[in-house]
Structures
1.
Amino acid sequence: MKCRMCGFEFDENKLENRGCVACGKHSNCNQVHCPRCGFGNHPELDEEFEFINKLKEKLRNRKKSTN
Ligand SMILES: [Zn+2]
Ligand SMILES: [Zn+2]
């Protein structure tokens, strides 16, 4: 996969504990940590990311009618 933070490409399947040695969350961490910068990537949330981005766009386009 490709790290969202630094763009470094790595094989998440070759990482021990998904690279989660240093983050300290361990049991409840479902992120894949970039071996280069340590950023926690969410491989499962790709679709949600897009969903959120679209939602943000909607919110941005929507004028505040309240107030
Ligand atoms: Zn972690
Ligand atoms: Zn990275």
2.
Amino acid sequence: MADPATTLFPPFPHQDYLHHRQGIDAAVQRVLESGQFLLGAEGKAFEEEFAAYVGTSHGVGVGSGTDAIEVMLRALDIGPGCKVVVPSLAAVAVASAVGRAGAGVLLADCEPESLTLCPKSLEAVLKSPAGRQVKAALVVHLFGQMADWGGLQRVAQEYGIMLLEDCAQGHGATWNGRPAGTLARAAAFSFYPSKNLGAMGDAGMVVTPDGELAECMRMIRQYGWRRSRVSEVEGVNSRMDEMQAAVLRVKLKTLPEQLRVRRRLAAVYSRRLEAGEMVRPPVVRAGCEHAWHQYVVRCSRGDELQEWLQSSGVPAARHYPLAIHQQPGYRCAELVPVPLPETERAVAEVLSLPLHPYLAEEAVEMVCAAIEQFGETAGGHGSRRV
Ligand SMILES: Cc1ncc(COP(=O)(O)O)c(C=O)c1O
């Protein structure tokens, strides 16, 4: 019998390749024939095209989203002796990148509804003794949901810190009509294959309206060079390769249409799940457009529901099974100056349902039916929305 996990729920990166196959194959061939594999015409064109898509002036292509954060922090001189606040409910990459830039990490809590960085928790971190060293907060638009930029900005202004954006999950989201990536002085994007705009390997970019900052990031991504083999500043090696850039140029053209499909499928989920009792669907922040990188529901028995869905052939996932402060490599009291109750509650309850542009509405209906069945089984009784 056909496995529903692969027929109804094909993995996004492979489907995305199949959909764009002709264009991608031609683009890769073009790069191979050009003989230019790093920092060439494709990378430059993609930097310009992606910055224009975001609605800003400059893009600096790097090796990954993690590198994008590191390069951005280094260019802003946020390193040893400085601290950066990041949400604990996020990819561990954010803490890793801050550490690689040489700065210290302080973890803050999320908001109960949106799950993005909580302005009150940021303020509590800034008021704590460790808060005096904070230079910036890295604001993650988690799952494609915009953070409370207005609330965070008020806190940042009061305490004199900089806000930076992590848009790894936010390609195409908007806050009060302003696209993710245009709110801060600089913003980091990831093009990891499963992201809304995904490469066929690792790639990332920093975007900024500031030409001087972009120039500095261009130096840092390649050993601090402005001229070949002259290191004006201390840099790293993080260049987006030409094949990834060429592939991303092909895929960028269909991103707006893909976002429309994500939004349509998310609306189908929400309509169906609102009518039930088992899970709490995500709520979109007022005035914002969600990019639906993940469709994340809350359930008081998230583990059991995930098991139930997986045994029904539905690839439901936990984002994140552990918050950063719960990761073995990051269990350190110094990183956690304030309590993180909402993060801990979310970790126990969140479940990401399958959502990408190649899912049929039938697949979404099947997931919703499986959730209803969970509620009707003996195992599901008593499990209610939280
Ligand atoms: C919020 C966030 N920031 C940063 C990253 C790092 O991106 P990359 O995997 O391209 O290094 C990720 C990817 O998982 C992410 O989700």
